[in-house]
Amino acid sequence: MGFPKQFEDRVTNDDFLGQQLLIALDEQAPVSIRINPKKMSEPTSFKRKIDWCANGYYLNVRPSFIADPLFHAGSYYPQEAGSMVIDKILRLLELPEEPVILDLCAAPGGKSTLIATFLNNSGLLVSNEVINSRAKILRENLVKWGALNTIVTNNDPDDFGKLKHFFDVLVVDAPCSGEGMFRKDPKSRDEWSEENIHLCSLRQKRILGDAWDALKPGGFLIYSTCTFNENENEENVRFIAELGAEQIDLNLPEPITKGREGIGSYFIPGRTDAEGFFVALLQKHEGSSSKQKLDQKKEFKPLKDTSIVKDLVFPDGINFYQWNEKVFVFPAQTCDRILHVISKMHILKAGVMIGEIQRKGITPSEELALSTDLVNWQNRIELTQEQALKYLHGDTFALEAKPGLHLVTFEKQPLGWIKHLGNRFNNLYPKDWRIRMNLDKLSY
C-alpha cells in the first residue's frame, strides 16, 4: 500500500526526515514486549533487550499473544519499543518519595503499566481516558497488571482543573495523526491528511492547556506523539513553553535523534528499531502552590468489620474501605490522595476492589485474583495451556476439585476464579474480557 502524495512530499522535502523514512516504513516492524517483573522474570525467547527500558525486550518473531495465557494474566504487555523510553525518562527525574503521576491520554494502557512498574506501589498513578469504550480497556489492562496504587478515570482533560497543582508528573501521549503507525498498520495511511494534522495539533494544544493547572509548579511534563511532523511535535513543545515551562535536554544516545532545532527527541524507523515516536521533557516554572484541602467522597468509608476478610492474607501498610457492598484496598500512605481523586473524578477503578460482601462473607473479585501483592488464596488449580484458553474463552470442562471457590492459574500466574460444584464448575472470568475468537483458529 502506497503513501498519501502529500505525506510523501512532506517527508522528501523535509531535510530532517528524507526519503529513507519512506523506505523504512515499508519494511517489517520490530516486535517488542515489556514484562511485568512481579509476574515474569524474562521471556522464554527474545532477540535482545531494549537499551532504554529495564524490562523491555525485542522478540524474534511476532507470536499470537491472544493464544498465550500469560498475556491475559498481565505477565507482559506488547508495546512499541520507542514509547518505552518513558521508563528511562522517569528514572532521570528528581521526584518526591511518593510521587503522584497523571497519564492523561492513557488507553490502551502501555505507558500506564510502565509507570505502575516504575512506581512499584509507591505514590499514586491516575490513568485517564476520555472515550468510555477505551477507558474500559485501560481499566482491564491495569487490573491485569496488578498494582495497588492505580486509579482509572474517565474524564475530559478540562476536568483535571479540579485537581489544581496535584501532580508531580503529567504524561501526555497525545492523540495524533499516527504517522508512526504507517508500518505497523498500513490502513492508517488512508486516514492521513493535511487537514487532520491541523486538527490534531489544535486538539493537542487544547488538551495541554486544559490540564496544565493540574501540574505542580516545578513538576514535569512528558509530551509524546507517534508522528513525525513539526506541527504536532516541536510546535507544541513551544506552546507548552509559553504556558510557563522550560524544556530539559534528555541527551538520549544515538541513534535516537534530536528534534528540529534541538526540540525533543525522535525514534525514526530506519535509524532506530522502533516505530515513529517523538518525546520531550519540560519542567513547569516554580511558583506559589497553596496546600489544598483533600476532599473525601462520602460513599467511601473505612471498613469497620474487618472480620469479613479474615480468610484473606494481606501485607502491612494497606487500608480497607467500603462503598455500598464492595470492599477496596488502598495503600495507607496514599489513601488521602486516592480519596481526593475519587471525590473529583469519574472513577472506573480505584486501588484494588477485593470483593463484595455477601451473607456468608466476602466474594473475591477478579481484581483480587490478579493483584501482585494481595492474593494469597490456598485453593488453586494449575491449568494446562489448552485448559487455560478454554477458561479464558468462558468455557467449562472436566476439572477435578473439591466443591468451593478456586483460583485457577497458568504457570503459577493467576487467571481468575471458578466455583466448583462437585460435578461441574461455574466459570467466573469476566464476560467482557473473554477471548472471542474460535479457539480452533488459534495457533499455540
Overall pLDDT level: 94
The computed structural class is alpha+beta
Highest CATH level, the class of the domain at 378-444 = Alpha Beta
- Please report the total strand number as a whole number: 23
By DSSP (H or I, 4+ residues per run), the number of helices equals 11
> What is the second-level CATH architecture of the domain at 378-444?
Roll
Q: Would you give the CATH topology of the domain at 378-444?
A: Nuclear Transport Factor 2, Chain: A
Computed Rg: 23 Å
Query: Which spans have pLDDT < 50 for at least 5 consecutive residues?
Result: none
Any descriptors?
23% helix, 10-stranded mixed sheet, alpha+beta, 5-stranded antiparallel sheet, globular, Nuclear Transport Factor 2, Chain: A, 444 residues
Describe this structure in words.
The chain has 444 residues and is of the alpha+beta class. The chain is built from 11 helices and 23 strands. The protein has a domain at 378-444: Nuclear Transport Factor 2, Chain: A, CATH 3.10.450.720. The strands form 4 sheets. Strands 5, 6, 7, 8, 9, 10, 11, 12, 13 and 17 form a 10-stranded mixed beta sheet that branches. The protein has a 5-stranded antiparallel beta sheet with strand order 14-15-16-18-19. Helix 4 (85-92) runs parallel beside helix 5 and helix 7 (194-211) packs parallel to helix 8. The longest helix is centred in the middle third of the chain and has 18 residues, at 194-211. It is globular. It starts with a helix and ends in a 17-residue tail after the last strand.
